[in-house]
Request: fold
Amino acid sequence: MIRGTIILESLRADASLTGFRFVVRTIERGRPKLSAEQVAAGFPTVWSGIDFELEDARGGELAAALSSMLEPIGWYANFSSEVETFVVFPGRVFRYPRAAPQGRAEAQAYGRTLGIPEHQLDWSE
Reply:
């Protein structure tokens, strides 16, 4: 089973994620720690997260869909199965064996190029 979180504020205003049968585990709202650059860029100060589960076979499809729906700067989504991690940026997907240091490092390095603060490049695997 794939498990992950989608931050609703990371999705473009015209985004529509259909055709997936998610199991919603929790819905939470909170105030994340934002960098000075994110505050200056007008990032929302409250984020809404949906923790979900999805069948393993749909991971690639979900990654592709999210990649085309994320706001273009400063956002990513991530989710993992028992054996694989997906880190999704606008227009780019990293897919690697769970807890593989090289795959994680490559995804984090790419996230830095998008201005994502270090403390937010902390996805669980």
Q: What stands out?
A: The chain has a mean pLDDT of 94. The CA atoms of residues 61 and 98 lie 18 Å apart. Strands lie at 2-7, 23-30, 47-54, 77-80, 84-89, 92-97. Residues 2-120 form one domain.
